[in-house]
Amino acid sequence: MQLFKALEVGFRRWRNQLISPIKYRGEAVHCPVCDHSFSHFLPAGSGERKRPGAVCPLCRSRERDRLSWLFLQERENDLLEKHMQFLHVAPEPRLSEFFFNAIGEGYITADLMRKDVMVRLDVQDMLYPNETMDAIYCNHVFQDVPDDRKAIAECFRVLRPGGWAVVNVPLFAESTMEANTPGNVRSAWDKRPDEHVRNYGLDYQQRLEDAGFETEVFSPEDLEPDRQKRERFGIDGPRTGFLHFVRKPAASNEDNPSGDSSPEDRA
Ligand SMILES: [Zn+2]
């Protein structure tokens, strides 16, 4: 089964690389992640959540990946360095290549279910001691995690003071709605077993700050002010979302004179 899956993935990658540049030849859109232009991006999602212009035919990046890519390209020199301890949860293949090239040893891929990663990891209970990671990249994961506040607290715990994370989630409403909140559209969740555990709203930023993080939220307009470029990059639609960049405050000397931590500190 594993071999069949690997062959299928390999075939799909080969087909994309060979056929997509021809089949979708054009200049109307440009994917900054794989640096190729096409006639259009492909649709993603299904049913009422189907959206056009989402997926790059070649590298399969989504709107959110292209948004993150622009941010990372702009900040690469400040954020990434060789051999930093970098945890990439639910790794996106093209971004994974980029991080691995920038970091090398120290770059770790992790997931709870997938087998093509280095570490099996539950974000609600990370296996790392306190303050051991320089950075975490965890995109579109928390909406599927039963206790997202615990997962956010775990990210905070394992990051070193001054460490950073990108923790984007899909935003659907003004305020976050849990699947099991009485009186909400629970029936919709029951009908859709693949549905997220919660629909996040704009108050998501507050959850990050409640855990102790300093937060910065970037819209597509912040990262690419030129509307025509946003349209060309396929990051101008309402489903692109926002980039949530967080940092664990640097420790003051009073709080932690030695700057050391030990596994016993783990909460
Ligand atoms: Zn691409």
Oligomer: single chain
Strand order of the largest sheet: 7-6-5-8-9-14-13
Number of domains: 2
Number of strands: 14
Any idea of the CATH class of the largest domain? Alpha Beta
Mean pLDDT across every amino acid position: 86
Alpha carbon gap, first and last residue: 39 Å
Low-confidence stretches: 184-191, 256-267
Structural class: alpha/beta
Question: What do these coordinates show?
Answer:
The protein has two domains: about 1-60, no CATH class; about 60-250, Rossmann fold, CATH 3.40.50.150. Helix content is about 30%, strand content about 20%. The chain has eight helices and 14 strands. Strands 7-6-5-8-9-14-13 form a seven-stranded mixed beta sheet. Residues about 185-190 and about 255-265 have low confidence and may be disordered. Zinc ion binds near residues 31, 34, 58 and 59.
